[in-house]
Amino acid sequence: MKLLAVVLLLLPLSGCLAEVVPDFTVNCSQFFVNPFGIVSPPTTFIDENHDRYKLICQTLNNKIEFATYYDMKNKIPVYSAYRFEGLGNCDVQNSWFIEPQLDSPMRGGKNMGHEAGVRNCGANQALNSDYDDVKENDVNKYDRGHLAPVYCAKTQSCANATFTLTNAAPQNPRFTRGWWRTTERNLANFLNTHCIKAGLRAYVVTGVVPGNTDMNGRVRVPSHYWTAFCCLDNRNNHRHSGGYVGENIEQGKEPQRIKRRDLEMRLRNLYRTVFTLFGGGC
Ligand SMILES: *[C@@H]1O[C@H](CO)[C@@H](O)[C@H](O)[C@H]1NC(C)=O
Ligand SMILES: *[C@@H]1O[C@H](CO)[C@@H](O)[C@H](O)[C@H]1NC(C)=O
Description:
Blueprint: H1 2-10, E1 20-21, E2 53-60, E3 63-71, E4 76-84, H2 100-103, H3 128-132, E5 143-146, H4 156-161, E6 168-171, H5 173-177, H6 179-196, E7 201-215, E8 219-232, E9 238-247, H7 260-271
Antiparallel strand pairs: 1-2, 2-3, 3-4, 4-7, 5-6, 7-8, 8-9
The structure holds 2-acetamido-2-deoxy-beta-D-glucopyranose (NAG) (2 copies).
């Protein structure tokens, strides 16, 4: 943990990189819990050459809306973190952004953008064609599964920003439209009733575990989707926490709410490394 912190500090800071950032505790810290006043993002992995995992402050129209930890090798996120601020009933979009800086670190602007605006994009991230080129009814056809969900966005600008492929991973269509949607709604309703209406701050992290197969020969299909929450009061004491994990398959079971600690144990087994969700707090 200490070693990783040192390594991150040594990363070259470039004025061009306004959105892919070196450290979540400095840039976009507002999306992470701060029990005891310490900003506590979930685990990040060892990445000695800094060429696999990127920290993204998801920015649209110069406004940072949430944060994503992205795996350029698998071309899917590890997790997205956001504040839940209430139910917004926002419109969905039908086009998806990408992250220009992943493929064009020096020229990409800090905002998410459309593929057409980035030369040679796709080496480090999934593109729309990865999802679209697989025919309907093919067993390898997947939905673009949101991590930070549009359903939980309070504002339309935040809802729009969730439509970026760095916030998505291949999701089994029946899982997307079934148990995972139910889980997103259960979670949003719980947070709305027990945290927002009670005057607490609600923090959510949603992630995926890479499975063993690829979509379109390029993009890793997750074996599991998971989500965790923590609600803090105005003295930064945690009042509610928990999470869900579900298998990304057609015939899954409804994810049940489990304790934060039990979700961390599940994730430790799935990622094969110690995994903390809120820095061990909550
Ligand atoms: C990160 O935040 C620091 C401190 O606010 C700022 O100086 C720096 O420019 C930011 N870096 C990026 C890449 O946005
Ligand atoms: C959201 O996206 C839609 C479609 O691109 C656009 O018309 C609308 O102005 C956007 N809303 C905001 C608040 O950015």
